[in-house]
Amino acid sequence: MSELRLWELENPSLGNLLEAKAKLDGNNTILLFEDQKVTYTEFDDRANRAANGLLELGVKKGDTVCLWLPNCPEWLYLWFGMAKIGAVLVPVLPGLSGNHLAHLINQSDAKTIVLDASFLSAFDAVAKRLKKIKNIVVEARASSPGTVSLPQGSVLLETLFDCSAESPQIGVRHPDVACIIYTSGTTGLPKGLVTRHFPPIPKPTTPASSDPYAEYFKPGAVAYMCYPLATWFGGFVAWFVRDMVTAFSREKRYDRFWDDARRYNASFFM
What we know:
The protein is α/β, with parallel strands linked by helices. It has one domain: Rossmann fold (3-Layer(aba) Sandwich). The protein has helices at residues 14-25, 40-56, 73-85, 98-107, 120-126, 157-160, 229-240, 257-263; strands spanning 29-33, 36-39, 64-68, 88-91, 112-116, 135-139, 155-156, 177-182, 192-196, 222-225, 245-248, 268-269. The strands form three sheets. Strands 2-1-11-10-12 form a five-stranded mixed sheet. It has a five-stranded parallel sheet with strand order 4-3-5-6-7. Helix 1 (14-25) crosses helix 3.
């Protein structure tokens, strides 16, 4: 496995990091999901398709996009697709509804929302209160045929992944806004925190052997997660830049936790 020297990248945006890694270690595994194994090349290809699909919807650099899906690889492909075109990710917790949901969508100025069909009833309940939503993208592949009534003018998520796999080549810089992370709203309405792609990354001044986590966070090690992606997606980047593999499941199942951890041969879990 080749070492990705982050401090040598002229512009360490999320999209550029992924493309650099795909060139170095394209055949290596980046992701394990249920029975799927995804390589860096495959991940980059799907992120490019998501990016170009969003561009075809009219999403531009600086636009916010609400991402409201259960755990699935498409969640990550869409996030990196947004990063490649400079769109801003707004992750939505699976159980959000009512006033909190409407506030998050409106306050983030989102014009596009990508949601699972299982969340359509919660979305429909606040749809008339949403001020700026123009694009509705629905993931309906897990639903039984004929059971989903799609909102007027919506498109299916799978159509985005039919788009070109070429890198969109949008000028995204590492200081650009990458996402707005909202609180769960325990003590009031959700509050947003703006985060950027990456700060300038200095060259390490201490040897890797001095890293107290080096034994666990080593290249090829598997990190297993069972919580909603909307709460831990930042961890994916932390493991990705350490050349680790991320494993996760579609839903949080306590009765399957240890079986999954063993199946993925996880080095650690959260």
